[in-house]
Amino acid sequence: MEIPNTLRYTKDHEWVKIDGDMVVVGITDFAQGELGDIVYVEVETLDETLAEEEVFGTVEAVKTVSDLFLPIAGTVVVFNEMLEDAPETVNQDPYGDGWMIKLKPENISDVDNLMTADEYKALIGA
User: pTM of the prediction?
Assistant: First the structure.
């Protein structure tokens, strides 16, 4: 299981990467493994401003549907449209092509309050 040191993490198993003045969000390798084969990713909050921990979408796997929670407050500005036709990309490359949204954060320094890789490893017992 991969947990890159360059990212920040949430208790809800999302990862966050700063990309200029934007934040890229996806689910962790642990999360995709727990969900199993992902068959659908839905984000209906494009261009909406949401508070931290509000639901920004859902991910549907063969076994279950799981909500996706915004790691920090901001506006959802981009959805990874590749996931519409190839949701399994989240399973294959959760930290690369399997990213889910790009967010314009209200305060980019809020990323500093998220878990480090070591803290996330402790959370999941890795």
Answer: 0.96
Residue type, 67: D
CATH code of the domain in which 37 resides: 2.40.50.100
Q: 120 φ, ψ to 5°?
A: -65, -40
pLDDT single digits (tens) 97-114: 999 999 999 999 999 999
**115 strand-pairing partners:** 9
Please name the residue that has the structure tokens 């989240």.
90
**d(C-alpha 2, C-alpha 21), whole Å:** 26
Four-residue CA torsion sign, 36, 98, 39, 13: positive
Amino acid at position 119, single letter: E
Burial class (CB in 10 A: 0-12, 13-18, 19+), 26: buried
- In terms of residue numbers, what domain contains 77? 11-121
